[in-house]
Specification:
Strand content: 15-25%
Distance between the termini: 10 Å
Number of strands: 6
Largest sheet: 6 strands, parallel
Oligomer: single chain
CATH architecture: 3-Layer(aba) Sandwich
Bound molecules: flavin mononucleotide
């Protein structure tokens, strides 16, 4: 099974989450490719079975340019028949906007026809042990559904 992880990270938290998830999925036998949103074309999802987006949220309801460019590319795809998962780190200080971009991408993946394989994983700031468990559980759900 091929998994494609695309992530956006300014200060490293979401890069760490992407790394942890990549290792977990590799342990389950997935063929994983990981790259930063800024240097990735959303079309790359078309060659994967499982499309994953890991993102920060900066700016209470808005998207940074790197995220909105990727979001606009995603909007044009048809991911029918593929699975997706979203996760990310934010800060609860932003209350109603906590991890908002994670949920923006959840909606968009659904809109372009992909099927959600596990619930969004939201993490507060840098991933601690509890957050790592959440990532591990999500990876297990992905493996349970996609591996024979
Ligand atoms: C100016 C600024 C605005 C932010 N806005 C939000 C926000 O709206 N929602 C949220 O959940 N987190 C917000 N955050 C917190 C970041 O998303 C959080 O620190 C995240 O872990 C950063 O990820 P990164 O290390 O991958 O860049 C904001 C942080 C800063 C500095």
């Amino acid at each position: 099974m091929k998994a494609r992880i695309v992530y956006a990270s300014m200060t490293g938290n979401n890069a760490d989450i992407a790394d942890i998830l990549e290792e977990e999925l590799q342990d389950y036998g997935f063929d994983v490719e990981t790259s930063e949103a800024e240097f990735t074309d959303a079309n790359d999802y078309l060659s994967s079975d499982l499309c994953i987006f890991v993102t920060y949220t900066y700016g209470e309801g808005t998207m940074t340019d790197e995220i909105s460019d990727f979001y606009e590319q995603l909007k044009e795809l048809n991911l029918t028949g593929k699975y997706f998962a979203v996760m990310g780190s934010g800060d609860m200080v932003y209350a109603d906007h906590f991890c908002e971009n994670v949920f923006d991408f959840e909606k968009m993946f659904k809109q372009v026809g992909a099927k959600e394989i596990t619930k969004p994983v939201t993490i507060e700031n840098a991933p601690d042990d509890e957050a790592i468990s959440k990532i591990e559980n999500a990876a297990k759900e992905m493996a349970d559904q996609l591996n024979d």
